[in-house]
Design goal:
Elements: H1 2-6, E1 13-18, H2 22-35, H3 45-62, E2 70-75, E3 84-88, H4 93-104, E4 110-116, H5 121-125, H6 136-152, E5 160-163, H7 167-173, E6 181-183, H8 200-206, H9 208-216, H10 229-235, H11 237-245, E7 250-254, H12 256-267, E8 283-290, E9 293-300
Parallel strand pairs: 1-2, 4-7, 5-6, 5-7
Antiparallel strand pairs: 2-3, 4-8, 8-9
Helix pairs in contact: 2-3, 8-9
InterPro entries: 6Pfruct_kin, 6Phosfructo_kin, His_Pase_superF_clade-1, His_PPase_superfam, P-loop_NTPase, PG/BPGM_mutase_AS
GO cellular component, one term: cytosol
Keywords: ATP-binding, Nucleotide-binding
């Protein structure tokens, strides 16, 4: 029916997930009962449990596994350990990337901490881009961040710190000890091209057409000889896949545009909102990923 509806105008790929682990099934059922509006009025948890299990048994009677067309089967892969993936009639760049992405995802609960670097000297001057060192306030934040990370992740021996290759993020990470640090060029700030080092007022005065084009469509606007938000999103793909693979906490110290894109991915925010997401200085956004979805906490360490 779906293939007929598509009428060959789009490629249809079926994704089937199969779980045979009774412990995981039981856990998922219990989570479902706690969260589903179907059982909001049911005070007896055990009665709800039996009702859901009987519902599941009815589903199993009529369920038909996917056996035709293009499909991906993920069998007992929910834990991220073992299991298998079956691929049938999958070809092309994007379907191949989907398979690669699915192979690397799992539901192991772990936090991801996102933060901008401490205030830089260019931040104080209102200049975009650049590669300056931290201001006095930025240096204080770096120490506060180190204290926070060391307390928050003291029992997480496998945690890691990811920064961009720009010195303001590397300096911000430097007081943090006890965890490996990895530099990613893909985490560098959006390339402002010929506008690098300018203030927005200078761009408005000297390049009014560019200023207006950016104001009208911040998502797609590309700085002359620089990047757009869409360019940043594209270069973040390997970072996102590596974040999905991680089973230990990760602290990402990066830049405003980059963190907006990463946050939007995990929080499932639409593309058009990305350039306007609030990611203030000296604030940690903790994203907790697990079987119940994504939860968020924000810690403001300085005014």
């Amino acid at each position: 029916m779906l293939i007929k509806m598509g009428d060959w105008k789009c490629k249809i790929i079926f994704l089937e997930t199969l779980c045979n682990d009774e412990h995981i099934i039981e856990r998922n059922i219990r989570l479902k009962i706690q969260q589903s509006p179907d059982y909001a009025e049911q005070p007896d948890f055990e009665a709800g449990l039996q009702d859901f299990k009987s519902r599941l048994a009815n589903y199993e009677k009529v369920y038909e596994p996917v056996e035709e067309g293009s499909y991906i089967k993920m069998i007992d892969m929910v834990s991220g350990h073992g299991g298998q993936i079956q691929v049938n009639n999958i070809s092309g760049y994007l379907p191949g990337r989907i398979v690669f992405f699915l192979v690397n995802t799992h539901l192991t609960p772990r936090p991801i901490l996102l933060t901008r670097h401490g205030e830089s000297r260019d931040n104080v001057r209102g200049r975009i881009g650049g590669d300056t060192v931290l201001s006095d306030a930025g240096e204080i934040y770096a120490k506060k961040l180190a204290d926070f990370v060391e307390k928050r992740l003291k029992s997480e021996k496998a945690a890691s710190i990811w920064t961009s290759t720009l010195q303001r993020t590397i300096i911000t990470a430097s007081p943090i000890i006890g965890f490996p640090k990895i530099q990613w060029r893909a985490l560098d700030e959006i390339n402002a091209g010929v506008c690098d080092g300018m203030t927005y007022e200078e761009i408005k005065k000297n390049m009014p057409e560019e200023y207006e084009a950016r104001r009208k469509d911040k998502l797609r606007y590309r700085y002359p000889r620089g990047e757009s938000y869409l360019d940043v999103i594209q270069r973040l793909e390997p970072v996102i896949i590596e974040l999905e693979r991680q089973r230990a906490p990760v602290v990402v110290i990066s830049h405003q545009a980059v963190l907006r894109a990463l946050y939007a991915y995990f929080a499932d925010r639409p593309l058009k909102e990305i350039p306007h997401i609030e990611v203030p200085l000296h604030t940690i956004i903790e994203i907790q990923m697990g079987v119940t979805g994504v939860q968020e906490k924000r810690y403001k360490l300085m005014d």
